[in-house]
Amino acid sequence: MLEARTIDLFYGAAQALRGVSIAAARGAVTCLLGRNGVGKTSLLRAIVGQHPVSAGTVTLDGVDLTSLAPHDRARRGVAYVPQGREIFPLLSVRENLETGFAPLPRRERHIPDEIFTLFPVLKDMLKRRGGDLSGGQQQQLAISRALVTRPRLLVLDEPTEGIQPSIIKEIERVIGLLRDRGDMAILLVEQYFDFARDLADSFAVMDRGEIVMCGARADMVEADVRRHLTL
Prior knowledge:
This protein has eight helices and ten strands. The protein is an alpha/beta fold. The protein has a domain of 158 residues: 3-Layer(aba) Sandwich (Rossmann fold), CATH 3.40.50.300. The protein has a six-stranded mixed beta sheet with strand order 6-7-8-3-9-10, sandwiched between helices. 41% of the residues are buried.
């Protein structure tokens, strides 16, 4: 399980997160919702180590990650699919996947067959440059690259952004399969409410750098959540 507790985060003098706490359990999807600019990506950066926190702790299965660099967190099972995908446009699909080898011991540095079971389209595109793929295909590649690292925690930042509906359904199916496999926790940031609602086992809503609502999916009051997603 991931546990982020009472996280404070600053950009210079501006405070982006105020005492934020969130948890993500193995075999479950935790969805983090909120409008643009409320601190969702800042919280993910704190969890994966891309920005230092001023207060609070981040633990995974009881191990304190708070002071570790991003590559050390990756070695301990944290995988991040950033907003905008950030694949390498001049590298081939195969080479992009192989960048996921970095945190792995040498004996595990191979692309699991499961990748092509989850995203069959990539198997026929291994020699194609990442920048030549459509937005939806790049998103599938970004998720696959994260899965190559064999994560215990998969963190996804708005995987539906700019993606055509057919690929959104495909990504929803894959996230559901990964959840049901039961060996990883999934933390999903999303603005597309229907996508988040259909996947979530638990949810949290952010506003102005704080968690303002959280609970199990069964306890979600849709109207209250949607109120925090509209301007």
